């Protein structure tokens, strides 16, 4: 009989490419991998189809949103409604713990709330998830593209170079204590950011009350 690994996708969104890649690496000792989830995004399906491991057969199992009575009244029921209006980690009710969530949730909502989510198996409405910090924006299906375009438009109005530096400033200091993080961010601010032409242009445009003209340098 083949050795089969079974993984459950998140309830707060589709399975992503990075999650599939992590599961493939963790399943090297198995013959087959079953990924059960409400949804798979396009990139995750591409990774599954293009997997470089010929010995591992990967199966996508789509879970119906009505598999659990606990979801009654939480999912929208109109034809145009979005599926993911419910968030939570129900693994504990089946005798599991959620490996990815155990790592990621403390970073998003703090250790205490992460323990609550994982140990109760409770389901949260989208509005609750947003208040906790699991979700940045909410949008109905009909307005989804407008919401995305609005956010992307705000980002695109800024300097590409400074966007990259902002992302680096956040990501490079996530796991450091406050003193180390503050030292690193201060060094980046003074010795990298303040030496860019775009930062100087931003200051100048503010003083001259005009739109900045970014040079990406």
Question: Would you spell out the secondary-structure blueprint of this structure?
Answer:
Elements (H helix, E strand, L loop, with lengths): L3 E5 L8 H10 L5 E6 L4 H8 L7 E6 L23 E3 L10 H11 L1 H10 L2 E3 H7 L11 H13 L3 H12 L6 H14 L5 H11 L10
Parallel strand pairs: 1-2, 2-3
Antiparallel strand pairs: 4-5
Helix pairs in contact: 1-2, 3-4
What can be said about this structure in brief?
The chain has 217 residues and is mainly alpha-helical. Helices cover 44% and strands 11% of the residues.
Can you tell me about this structure?
The chain is mainly α. The protein contains nine helices and five strands. The strands form two sheets. A three-stranded parallel beta sheet has the order 1-2-3, with helices on one face. Strands 4-5 form a two-stranded antiparallel sheet. Strand 2, helix 2 and strand 3 form a beta-alpha-beta unit. Helix 1 runs parallel beside helix 2. The radius of gyration is 22 Å and the shape is elongated. About 5% of the residues have low confidence.
Give a quick set of tags describing it.
single chain, 217 residues, mainly alpha, three-stranded parallel sheet, two-stranded antiparallel ribbon, elongated
